[in-house]
Specification:
Chain lengths: ~325, ~400, ~280
């Protein structure tokens, strides 16, 4: 990655950081094990994978570029509708749909990125939120095209790669979602350890100093925001393709807010935080609402409060603190 | 493996048909409902109706004991969540029947699952007309939006209301209601003098009310999602003296639904609506129903959603009685077609052509009865089919 | 003219339901998304007092404020104070957790339906001046809102307590060194914020309704007011509410087709041109 070396600069530690660790290999065995162990829950598992990808996209924006967004569902929704409309109008190859959704979401991300360059956390939060809410209203206004609150129907997908059709048990959907998640995670991991990713981290830590190092702050932020939007778009498209339905809820405030919650719960700025946050949140949600469909929110709320009280910076923060306390632990 | 399973299932059914031994085998009904979130009141009422049916009419259908599995698909508008839960009910919990569905997107998203898994699907609320066209295994026990909208338009045209201002919430159901009202009302010779689509989330109706006041119509037709918006509108309507100015208010009956009627308060008095169920409906069936309801849930009031759940269960019970406990989707739907019964809401039947409900629609007026606000019925349209499918 | 009056009233309603957040987020720099939960508490206390105990509306308001303030003190002592030093994101996670819990609690005790509230006759109805139709309750909201805004602004800018508060937020360590009882200042301010939230909730029931989803349903409006006004001052929130209220009402009256967009568009445009809000202090953080 760091191809050009500078005299006197030892990229060794950075390379070490970029190297895959044993725990990471173990982590990625989980989805494989889950496929065999939880074969009856594949539709839940694929939605976890999709949400994880969505959380990952927010981590690129928030954890690396430091832009707090409460409107990230905008890009998720754009991706979902793009894939849905493509499929409903006869262009229904899944992979082409992903690509189309990514491009459209990236374009939307690029355009709106200029709105979030300035301002404090609260300002950015509200601007992103405002953009997402306006998109929601727009999708509602365009009921004739989007189906409005009743949802976009008539989406039929071609079999994946011409071979695997989407089945009731959700096998194809699960494998498809996990593979896409893994590939995009791998790319994201390379990006954050590249000079581009490192400069983003620098910007987050000290905005004033980065221009002095020759890093164009605004261009980097625009890049990161666009990338995050593209990722979110792909996540949205995956959801559309695996459920063959788009509800207007994909653009809703609650989806953005829940996503922010998931990422913060997992811990920002480590990519794995996004994945772990999703697994913890969605599993807790699923189990609690299964046990107590009416009042599960109470227990979920309590879980969030406890996590904050006992572990700062989310689950990853807690794990790190635990790791430091245990002598001889990895990392 | 798959074939083996299918063969096994088929064998079970064959056995079941010939032996009464099946009695030991419970019938699993998966309920997909919004139990939390903005539409929690829907889920709660439907669930109440379902439980009340089992408690009062027995929980053994066609010789098989009923086992309920409830899934919260909050917010109820996210098709992906509803679909996932339905898949899970079928694949993991192995339910025989899918039921519930508070809102249209949830029913739309689940219909393909019912088709693919060959499970009967009983809709207990979702009211967009096209819902029943999405799967051949789908039967609706609630109502359709055009079905409850058209009668109030005909009534208005017949009762010296010439100029109407329509105000609907700006979303799919609102557009449908607006369209149906306009169609029926203008066909009967009425005139629409103004129309406004208000944002769905709209804390302040002042500007719209002012506009209505300036237009001076004979009546205002409104369609809003039940909840805070309805209350804000109704209170504003009285406060601004629109009713005092002689402007009448007409709506579909979900607006002054028993659940929020008390919250609207006296501002609701005089509101005229068309609907299929009122707590004040006079019949022996409804008397028994409301009494049982208050006994079981003293904090709530029986409303149309609870009736949707109740009748949905009744439909399932009767069908299973007819098929001897067989819940095979084809057989279920065949048995359901043309079924007739007297519900607490009045006489109802299932249209054999569309699998949708046919029922009496009543014209009602909000009045105070025994200290309580009620929708008192004073006119009716018998055996009214969904006009949205004609 | 009536449109302008309604806009002002609508704006003041926004101000009243958000002013508590202007205090906790704006002044104390704590991202208290559970603000709506305190407002909801106020609403329920008000409804219970009115409907079950027959307390008159005006007499209920001070009780409501005190009850929410008390709840604020209890939560501040037990939970909130542990998080003053935490990052904003942790505060978000924590306060949303509280929101979830409060929704379930309200659901459990009061059910999912809307709560009824009947105003006393002296506060309902409308009277006509030449050119303007004045709703009595709207007028009442305007009076209460302006009074609160003036009193708060005076307290922050003109009293010793206000100075202590500003010092405690900007630099707690130095403030402590100067002999300010920072803990006490924070408790009192938090109580003030939650009390105002409760009052706003109670005043809002008539127009916004009340059900367990209240804290989530209006969270966007609370945040809009604080963001547009600029954190750190009450005057900003008041002006922001007024601008949003008037634009919203006028937009819906004259061009209803874009009704839903107006409020968000006003916010985004304002924040693009004035990223710190209308009267923001240059970024506290």
């Amino acid at each position: 990655m760091t191809t050009h070396s500078i005299d006197g600069f030892d990229p060794g530690p950075l390379r070490n950081l970029a190297r895959w660790k044993r725990a990471e290999y173990a982590f990625w065995l989980l989805p494989v094990a889950a496929y065999f162990a939880l074969g009856e829950q594949l539709s839940l598992l694929s939605q976890i994978a999709i949400t994880a990808l969505f959380a990952l996209s927010l981590d690129l924006v928030l954890g690396y570029a430091g832009i707090v967004s409460l409107g990230h569902a905008a890009f998720f929704g754009i991706g979902a509708y793009a894939a849905g409309l493509m499929a409903a109008n006869g262009w229904n190859d899944p992979l082409a749909g992903l690509l189309g959704a990514a491009l459209i979401a990236a374009a939307a991300g690029f355009i709106t990125s200029f709105l979030v360059l300035r301002g404090s956390d609260l300002t950015r939060l509200m601007v992103t939120l405002g953009v997402a809410l306006m998109l929601f209203e727009l999708a509602n206004k365009l009921t004739r095209i989007t189906g409005g609150v009743d949802g976009l129907q008539g989406i039929e997908m071609k079999p994946l790669l011409g071979m695997f059709s989407f089945d009731l048990y959700g096998k194809t959907a699960y494998i498809y979602s996990v593979v896409v998640l893994f590939v995009l995670f791998w790319i994201a991991r390379r990006i954050v350890h590249s000079p581009f990713g490192l400069s983003l981290r620098g910007i987050r830590l000290n905005v004033q100093r980065m221009p002095a190092l020759g890093a164009p702050v605004n261009a980097r932020l625009v890049g990161a925001y666009t990338l995050g939007a593209a990722y979110a778009g792909i996540a949205g498209a995956l959801l559309t393709q695996t459920t063959q339905f788009v509800s207007i809820d994909v653009l809703s405030f609650s989806r953005s807010a829940e996503l922010l919650l998931i990422l913060v719960l997992g811990g920002t700025g480590s990519l794995y935080g996004a994945l772990i946050g999703t697994i913890v949140f969605m599993t807790a949600h699923h189990l609690l609402s299964g046990i107590n469909p009416q009042y599960w929110q109470f227990w979920l709320g309590m879980l969030l409060v406890l996590v904050v009280l006992f572990a700062r910076d989310g689950v990853m923060g807690g794990l790190r603190a635990l790791g430091k306390r245990l002598p001889g632990a990895v990392k | 493996m798959q074939h083996f399973k299918k063969a096994l299932v088929a064998a079970t059914f064959a056995l079941a048909a010939s032996f009464a031994a099946q009695a030991a085998d419970p019938i699993k009904i998966g309920l997909v409902l919004p139990m939390t979130g903005p539409f929690a009141a829907y889920g709660k009422q439907i669930h109440n109706g379902v439980k009340l049916y089992l408690a009062t009419q027995g929980d053994t259908f066609g010789g098989r004991k009923v086992e309920l599995i409830v899934k919260d698909d909050a917010p109820g508008t996210a098709g992906d969540v509803s679909k996932r839960l339905a898949q899970e009910l079928v694949v993991k919990d192995k339910v025989d029947i899918l039921a519930g569905f508070g809102l249209t997107p949830s029913a739309f998203a689940v219909a393909p699952v019912a088709t693919e898994a060959k499970k009967p699907m009983v809709v207990m609320n979702a009211a967009t007309s096209a819902v029943t066209t999405k799967s051949n295994y789908l039967v609706r026990a609630s109502m359709t939006l055009p079905q409850i909208t058209a009668p109030i338009a005909s009534w208005a045209a017949k009762n010296k209301i010439k100029k109407v201002f329509t105000l609907v919430a700006d979303y799919g159901p609102g557009h449908d209601a607006e369209g149906q009202f306009k169609k029926t009302f203008t066909a009967a010779g009425g005139e629409i003098v103004g129309e406004v689509r208000a944002p769905v989330k709209n804390p302040d109706f002042a500007p719209f009310l002012q506009k209505i006041k300036d237009t001076k119509p004979d009546a205002v037709f409104i369609f809003l999602p039940p909840g805070a918006e309805t209350i804000a509108f109704m209170k504003g309507f009285t406060e601004r003296g629109l009713s005092a100015a002689g402007i009448r208010l007409i709506a579909t009956g979900d607006l002054p639904d028993e659940d929020i009627l008390d919250a609207i308060g006296d501002a609701a008095l005089g509101l005229i609506t068309s609907f299929h169920y009122s707590e004040a409906h006079k019949s022996a069936e409804n008397k028994a129903y409301t009494e049982a309801y208050y006994k079981a849930y003293p904090k709530d009031r029986p409303n149309f959603m609870s009736i949707g759940g109740y009748d949905g269960m009744h439909l399932i019970a009767e069908v299973l009685k007819k098929t001897g406990g067989n819940a095979d989707a084809e057989k279920f739907v065949e048995a359901a077609k043309g079924m007739k019964w007297t519900s607490p809401r009045g006489p109802v039947s299932i249209d054999p052509a569309t699998r949708d409900i046919v029922q009496t629609i009543y014209i009602r007026k909000v009045e105070r009865v025994g200290g309580k606000l009620q929708n008192v019925e004073f006119d009716q349209v018998n055996e009214f089919k969904d006009p949205g499918k004609q | 003219m009536t449109v302008v009056f309604d806009g002002i009233a609508s704006g003041l309603l926004l101000f009243l339901i958000s002013v508590g957040l202007s205090v906790t987020l704006g002044l104390m720099n704590f991202v208290n998304l559970a603000h709506g939960s305190f407002a909801m508490l106020g609403g329920y206390v008000c409804v219970v007092l009115l409907n079950r105990h027959g307390v008159p509306f005006l007499a209920a308001l001070p009780i409501v404020t005190a009850a929410s303030a008390l709840a604020g003190v209890v939560l501040e002592r037990t939970l909130y104070r542990r998080l003053y030093g935490a990052s904003h994101l942790d505060q978000v996670l924590f306060s949303i957790g509280l929101v979830f819990m409060s929704i379930s609690i309200a659901h459990f005790f009061f059910g999912a339906q809307q709560q009824p509230l009947q105003l006393p006759p002296m506060l309902s109805g409308q009277f006509n001046l030449p050119g303007v139709d004045v709703g009595v309750y709207r007028l009442f909201l305007i009076v209460v809102g302006v009074t609160i805004a003036v009193a708060l602004q005076w307290m922050i800018a003109g009293t010793r307590f206000g100075a202590e508060l500003r010092a405690s937020v900007d630099n707690p360590r130095t403030a402590r060194g100067l002999g300010i009882d920072v803990e006490r200042v924070f408790v009192l301010t938090f109580a003030l914020g939650s009390g105002l939230a409760g009052l706003g909730g109670a005043l809002g029931v008539e127009m916004l309704g009340l059900d367990p989803e209240f804290p989530v349903k209006y969270i966007v409006y609370f945040l809009i007011v604080v963001a547009v006004g600029g954190s750190g001052n009450i005057k900003g929130s008041l002006y922001a509410s007024l601008i949003i209220g008037i634009c919203d009402v006028a937009g819906k009256y004259y061009i209803p087709q874009v009704g839903a967009f107006v409020i968000y568009a006003v916010m985004v445009v304002t924040l693009i041109f004035r990223p710190q809000g209308l009267f923001g202090r240059s970024a506290a953080k």
